[in-house]
Amino acid sequence: MLSWHVATTKPFCEMIAENGLRNKGFQPFNPKVYTQKIVRGARTWTERPYLPGYIFVRFDPNEDVLWPTINYIRGIQTLLYSASERPAPVKDAAMSILLDRCNGDRVKAEDIDAALSKIVPVGTNVRVVEGPFASFEGKVVWSESYRVKVLLSIFGRSTSALMSSKDVERA
Q1: Per-residue pLDDT tens over the stretch 32-47
Q2: Domain 3-116 -> CATH class
Q3: Phi and psi for 117 in degrees, rounded to 5?
């Protein structure tokens, strides 16, 4: 029975792994997202993996005798295994949620907009409400998706701390 499995990829090799899997006859799924970045002072749109470091592969480990070759495909680090030295399948419910968020292999724009709405803008004064720095105040110096880097004043010194955006509130 066909099922989805996860393979880890070598750093920045998700696209290479996707092409290698497809060339060997496997069905890869590498969700991608478009993001803006600044290159030489100009804003450009670039495509990058939605889940960096991971790629999904669909195959039947009982019928497909070539699945061990996945570990030797360029860009692949290793398949994730269960305790029985068999590739660990991804639960159908989890994969259906991920597949529903995508059009083909692109994450839907409304899902990206929902994630971006949770970004705390750089320069915002915040108060930490959870974790070891609770009750400290600082300024956001970096923000992406659900993570923020806050410059805190602790014992008279500026210290940066990386934390979840849900752990801070506007001061």
Answers
A1: 987 777 778 887 888 8
A2: alpha beta
A3: -70, -20
